[in-house]
Amino acid sequence: MTVILDRAVDVAVTGEWHRICPLDELELAWGEAALVAGRQVALFRIASTEVFAVAQQDPATLANVMARGIIGSRGSRPTISSPLHKEVYDLETGECFTNPELALDVFATRLVDGFIEVEL
């Protein structure tokens, strides 16, 4: 079997907010994947009410694995390391600290009535 992977294309780029799940369903310091308006998104709860959302697709390998990455920090910047090749990305900007040619799509999040919402 041959699988051909393509880079993620902006699917459903609408600038709309999408309700994902209750905040308490996300574990601290752990990633979860969600399908949001046809796009795979990785969610990370960093603090009691701080949640980041990034593309689930690893920019280096095109595999949908970012929710299984390792959460960390570079100074005061929260980061996620790819579980495959360990590239380190800024969770706020998507900048790759280890390879400036790569970038991870990031999405705004907010907490509304106890639910996490993501803007695509």
How would you sum up this structure, described in words?
With 120 residues, this protein is mainly β. Helix content is 0%, strand content 42%. The strands form 3 sheets. A 4-stranded antiparallel β-sheet has the order 2-3-4-8, with no helix packed on it. Strand 3 (39-47) and strand 4 form a beta hairpin. It is globular and about 40 Å long. Mean pLDDT is 90; it is low at 1-12. This is Nitrite reductase small subunit NirD. Residues 17-118 form the Rieske domain. It holds the Pfam family Rieske_2. Keywords: 2Fe-2S, Iron, Iron-sulfur, Metal-binding, Nitrate assimilation, Oxidoreductase.
List keywords for this structure.
mainly beta, three-stranded antiparallel sheet, 120 residues, single chain, four-stranded antiparallel sheet, 0% helix, 42% strand, 10 strands
Summary, kept brief:
This is Nitrite reductase small subunit NirD. The protein is mainly β.
Report helical residue fraction.
under 10%
Strand order, biggest sheet? 2-3-4-8
Q: Can you count the helices?
A: 0
Main sheet: strands, sense, barrel? 4 strands, antiparallel
Spans where pLDDT lies below 50 across 5 or more residues? 1-12
Spatial extent as radius of gyration: 14 Å
Q: Which structural class matches the secondary elements?
A: mainly beta
Question: Span from first to last CA?
Answer: 33 Å
Task: Report strand %.
Answer: 35-45%
Q: What is the strand tally?
A: 10
Give the SSE order as H and E letters.
EEEEEEEEEE
Keywords: 2Fe-2S, Iron, Iron-sulfur, Metal-binding, Nitrate assimilation, Oxidoreductase
Organism: Paenarthrobacter nicotinovorans
InterPro entries: NirD, Rieske-like_NirD, Rieske_2Fe-2S, Rieske_2Fe-2S_sf
Protein name: Nitrite reductase small subunit NirD
